[in-house]
Recover the amino acids of this structure.
C-alpha cells in the first residue's frame, strides 16, 4: 500500500524582504539584495506529502524547475524528508509563462510516473499567479482540488479534502490521481532533521559538481572531466546525486516550452515608485488635529 | 487556442453561486464596455448554472449587449472540470477576443484550467485593462491588444502583459478595484440560451459539504474606513480605532499585522490578502504602509496617516499626515470630530 506523492516546488526571491534596504535610490527593487528561498506555500505542500507518507507509507518525490542554484531548495527538501529530488533545468525553458511552465512540469511528472497525488503550493510569491497548479492538472488530465486546508481522509484511492474558499469552506472527494494546491494554514512544516542535514547537505546535481570542480577552467579538459565524473559516481553511490533533467529527458515538445510556448508576453514592467508627492502635514496638537478635521469637513470628505 | 478573431466579442464570466452573483462581473461592466467600444465589438456576459434564467435577466439590466446563459443540473455546483468543459465549448463556438474573470476563489480555479485547455494566455489578478498597440523587437506591430496590467513580485512591480497570437486574451481581475455600477434598467440586451451536454463523468469531484458565511464586515461599501495597525499595540487599545470610527460613522479596517497580533478579526483586513477598498476617506493609524497593505487601499480618494515615524512609507501616499503618538492624537481627533469644529 502507500501513496506516491510528487511535490512541485519553486525557488523564489524573498519578496517579503523588500524593505527600504532592498530598494535602489530610484525606487526600484534591488533583486540581488533579496535572498532566494523555498516558496513559502510549497513548504506546506511538501509537509502535506510527508504527512501522507508518515501515515500511509509511499514515496515523496520533489521536482523544481529553475536554474541550477534551485538545488538549494532540493537539498532543503531532502533534509526535511523527501525520498527523491529532481532538478528540471534547461536554457530552452527560460521565459516560460505559467502555461509553458505547467506543460514542462507535467512532462516531468509523467516521467516520474506512477503517481497518486501531485501537490503544489497555491501561489508563488514572485510571479504571484496561482495558475501553475490548475494548469498542470489540466495538462496531466487529472482533477484538481485547490486551496487544501485539511486532508480529511485517504482510502481506497479516494481522497477527501477540506478546501478553504475564502468566504467559507467545502468538503470535496476525488478519485486518485489528483492534483492538490496547498495553503499556508494547512499545516506547520517540520524542520530539517539534524541527521538528514549532515547527510544531504552534500547532495549535488552534476551541473553543480562541474561548476565546483572546473571553476573558471575548461570542464572538457580530460583531467577535469575525469574528476567530475568520479565525484558524480561517488555521490550517486551514496544516493546524493540530484537528478537533472533537461527538456529532451522529459520528452517535452519544444513548441510548448520557453518563450515560444508562452502566449503571454511582457509589454512593459514598471517598478512601483512611491509617489511621494508630498502631503499636508498637521501638528499633533489639539489645534493641529482640529485643523485637519476642519479641512476634511470643508472639502466634504466627512459630513 | 482559437484564431485571432478581430470581430470577436468581449466576454465577462458572470460568476454565481447558489443563484447569487459575485461582485466582480458587475464591477467589470464599465471597463468591459470601454474595451468593447474601443474595439467596436459586442460586450457579452456568460452565465453558467442551474435555473439561472432570472439571473440572466438581472444581468441584462446592467447594460451588456448580450447575455449568454447555459443551464444544466450538473452545473448546479461549481466544479473546475465541468465548468471548464462548457466554457471551452462556448469559446470555440463564439470566438471571443477577450474573456475576463474575477480573481476570486472560483475564477482562479477555473480560468487557468480553461487557459490550459485552450492553450491560450492568462494574466492573473489584473488591476487595470487598456487597449493599446505592441511592437515586437523585429518591428512587427500588433494593433489594439488588451493591455493586462497587474502587480507582481509581491506588489513591488507593475507588469503590463499582452497576448498577440494565442487567443482569446484572458485575464482575471482583482475584486474591488473597479467601481460597482448601478443597473441602468431596460435596454436592447439580447438574452441567448445555449444547450449543454454534460454527463456525470464530467464531474471530477463529489462535493460532500458546503459552508458559506457572509462577511460580517462590509468594507467595500464603506465611505470612510478607519484602520489600525501593529502600532496600536493591543486589542484593548484597538478600542481607540473603534471609537474614532463610531464618531465618523466609519467602518473599521486593520493591517495584517494587527490581525495576526489578534487586535482585530481577519474580516477587517485590508490589503493584498484582505479586502481591496476605495473609500472616500481612509485613515491609517499606526500602519507603516507595507506594499501589501497599500495594494488594498491606495485608490482611496483621501488618505490620512497618523504615525510616530516620519519616515513611514504610508506618508508617501497620504494626502494628510500627522507625525505623533497615536495614543495622544486619536483621542484628540475623536474629540474634534464629536465637536464638529
Ligand atoms: C512580473 C511578472 C508577471 C507575470 N505574470 C504572468 C501572468 O500573468 N501570466 C502568466 O502566465 N505568467 C506570468 N508570469 C510568468 C510566471 O511568473 C512564470 O511562468 C512562473 O514560472 C510561474 O508562475 P508563478 O510564479 O506565478 O507560479 P504560481 O502559479 O503562483 O505557482 C503555484 C505553484 O506551482 C508550483 N510551481 C510554480 N512554478 C514552479 C516551478 N518553476 N517549478 C516547480 N514548481 C512550480 C509551485 O508548487 C507553486 O507554489 C509573470 C512573470 C513575471 C516576472
Ligand atoms: C504574501 C503577503 C501578503 C500580505 N498581505 C497583507 C495584507 O493583505 N494586508 C496587510 O496589511 N499586510 C499584508 N501583509 C503584511 C505586510 O507586509 C506588513 O507586514 C503589514 O502590513 C504590517 O502591518 P503594520 O503596518 O500594522 O505593522 P508595522 O509594519 O509593524 O508598522 C507599525 C507602524 O506603527 C507605527 N507606530 C508604532 N507605535 C506607534 C504609536 N504609538 N503611535 C503612532 N504610530 C506608531 C510604527 O512607526 C510603524 O510604522 C502581507 C505580507 C505578505 C508577505
Amino acid at each position: 500500500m502507500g501513496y506516491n506523492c510528487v511535490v512541485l516546488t519553486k525557488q523564489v526571491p524573498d519578496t517579503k524582504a523588500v524593505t527600504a534596504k532592498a530598494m535602489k535610490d530610484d525606487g526600484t527593487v534591488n533583486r540581488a539584495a533579496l535572498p532566494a528561498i523555498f516558496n513559502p506555500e510549497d513548504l506546506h505542500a511538501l509537509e502535506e506529502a510527508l504527512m501522507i507518507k508518515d501515515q500511509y507509507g509511499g514515496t515523496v518525490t520533489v521536482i523544481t524547475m529553475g536554474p541550477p542554484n534551485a538545488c538549494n531548495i532540493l537539498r532543503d527538501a531532502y533534509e526535511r524528508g523527501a525520498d527523491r529530488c529532481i532538478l528540471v533545468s534547461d536554457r530552452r525553458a527560460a521565459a516560460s509563462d505559467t502555461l509553458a511552465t505547467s506543460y514542462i512540469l507535467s512532462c516531468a511528472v509523467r516521467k516520474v510516473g506512477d503517481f497518486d497525488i501531485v501537490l503544489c503550493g497555491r501561489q508563488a510569491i514572485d510571479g504571484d499567479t496561482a495558475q501553475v497548479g490548475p494548469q498542470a492538472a489540466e495538462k496531466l488530465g487529472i482533477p484538481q482540488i485547490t486551496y487544501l486546508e485539511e486532508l480529511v481522509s485517504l482510502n481506497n484511492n479516494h481522497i477527501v479534502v477540506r478546501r478553504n474558499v475564502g468566504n467559507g469552506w467545502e468538503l470535496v472527494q476525488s478519485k486518485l490521481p489528483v492534483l492538490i494546491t496547498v495553503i499556508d494554514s494547512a499545516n506547520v512544516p517540520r524542520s530539517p532533521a539534524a541527521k538528514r542535514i549532515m547527510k544531504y547537505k552534500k547532495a549535488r546535481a552534476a551541473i553543480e559538481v562541474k561548476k565546483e570542480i572546473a571553476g573558471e577552467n575548461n570542464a572538457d579538459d580530460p583531467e577535469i572531466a575525469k574528476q567530475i565524473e568520479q565525484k558524480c559516481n561517488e555521490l550517486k553511490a551514496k544516493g546524493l546525486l540530484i537528478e537533472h533533467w533537461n527538456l529532451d529527458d522529459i520528452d517535452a515538445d519544444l513548441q510548448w516550452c520557453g518563450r515560444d510556448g508562452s502566449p503571454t508576453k511582457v509589454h512593459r514592467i514598471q517598478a512601483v515608485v512611491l509617489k511621494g508627492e508630498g502631503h499636508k502635514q498637521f501638528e499633533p496638537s489639539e489645534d493641529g488635529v482640529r485643523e485637519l478635521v476642519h479641512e476634511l469637513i470643508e472639502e466634504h470628505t466627512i459630513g | 487556442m482559437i484564431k485571432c478573431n478581430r470581430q470577436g466579442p468581449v466576454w465577462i464570466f458572470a460568476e454565481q453561486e447558489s443563484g447569487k452573483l459575485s461582485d466582480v462581473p458587475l464591477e467589470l461592466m464599465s471597463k468591459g464596455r470601454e474595451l468593447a467600444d474601443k474595439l467596436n465589438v459586442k460586450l457579452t456576459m456568460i452565465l453558467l448554472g442551474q435555473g439561472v434564467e432570472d439571473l440572466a435577466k438581472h444581468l441584462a439590466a446592467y447594460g451588456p449587449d448580450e447575455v449568454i446563459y447555459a443551464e444544466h443540473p450538473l452545473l448546479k455546483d461549481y466544479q473546475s472540470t465541468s465548468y471548464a468543459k462548457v466554457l471551452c465549448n462556448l469559446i470555440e463556438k463564439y470566438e471571443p477576443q477577450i474573456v475576463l474573470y474575477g480573481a476570486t476563489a472560483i475564477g482562479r480555479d477555473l480560468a487557468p484550467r480553461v487557459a490550459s485547455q485552450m492553450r491560450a494566455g492568462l494574466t492573473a489578478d489584473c488591476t487595470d485593462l487598456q487597449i493599446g498597440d505592441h511592437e515586437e523587437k523585429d518591428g512587427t506591430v500588433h494593433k489594439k491588444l488588451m493591455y493586462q496590467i497587474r502587480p507582481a513580485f509581491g506588489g513591488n512591480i507593475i507588469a503590463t502583459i499582452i497576448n498577440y497570437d494565442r487567443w482569446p486574451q484572458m485575464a482575471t481581475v482583482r475584486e474591488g478595484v473597479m467601481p460597482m455600477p448601478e443597473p441602468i434598467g431596460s435596454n436592447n440586451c439580447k438574452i441567448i440560451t445555449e444547450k449543454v451536454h454534460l454527463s456525470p463523468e464530467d464531474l471530477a469531484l463529489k462535493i460532500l459539504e458546503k459552508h458559506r458565511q457572509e462577511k460580517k464586515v462590509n468594507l467595500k461599501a464603506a465611505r470612510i474606513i478607519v484602520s489600525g495597525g501593529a502600532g496600536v499595540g493591543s486589542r484593548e487599545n484597538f478600542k481607540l480605532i473603534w471609537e474614532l470610527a463610531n464618531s465618523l460613522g466609519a467602518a473599521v479596517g486593520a493591517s495584517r499585522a494587527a490581525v495576526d497580533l489578534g487586535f482585530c478579526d481577519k474580516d477587517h483586513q485590508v490589503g493584498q490578502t484582505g479586502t481591496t477598498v476605495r473609500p472616500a476617506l481612509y485613515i491609517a493609524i499606526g500602519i507603516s504602509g507595507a506594499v501589501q497593505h497599500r495594494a488594498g487601499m491606495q485608490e482611496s480618494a483621501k488618505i490620512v496617516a497618523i504615525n510616530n515615524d516620519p519616515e513611514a512609507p504610508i506618508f508617501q501616499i497620504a494626502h494628510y499626515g500627522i507625525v505623533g503618538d497615536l495614543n495622544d492624537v486619536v483621542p484628540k481627533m475623536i474629540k474634534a470630530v464629536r465637536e464638529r469644529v
Chain B has a mean pLDDT of 94. The pocket of flavin-adenine dinucleotide (ligand 2) is lined by residues A 16, 125; B 229-231, 255-258, 269-274, 286-288, 290, 292-293, 296, 307-309, 312, 325-327 (CB under 6 Å). Residues 84 and 114 of chain B are 5 Å apart (CA to CA). DSSP finds nine helices and 18 strands in chain B.
